[in-house]
Design brief:
Helix content: 10-25%
Mean pLDDT: 78
Largest sheet: 3 strands, antiparallel
Distance between the termini: 41 Å
Shape: globular
Number of helices: 2
Low-confidence stretches: 52-57
Number of strands: 5
Radius of gyration: 15 Å
Structural class: alpha+beta
Length: 71
């Protein structure tokens, strides 16, 4: 199974585009390791359950309530 990484930069080629924040396994293990070593990507670990339940916000994102000054 190819290494799953989260892109920290945007990368595009002839037949693909991945944006910063995208999680992908489209690269070979060697390419993924090179991107990680250069600081262009980070390894994705096992998904952790959220304490607050369901949600689709990326890590570090504020909820609408927090952003609006609420809870």
């Amino acid at each position: 199974m190819p290494t799953e990484i989260r892109m920290l930069t945007s990368v595009s080629g002839v037949d693909f585009t991945v944006a910063s924040g995208d999680v992908t396994d489209r690269f070979s293990d060697a390419e993924a390791e090179r991107l990680i070593a250069q600081g262009e990507a980070e390894r994705v670990g096992k998904k952790r359950a959220r304490a607050s339940g369901a949600g689709s916000e990326p890590a570090g994102a504020e909820s609408q309530a927090e952003y609006a000054g609420g809870a």
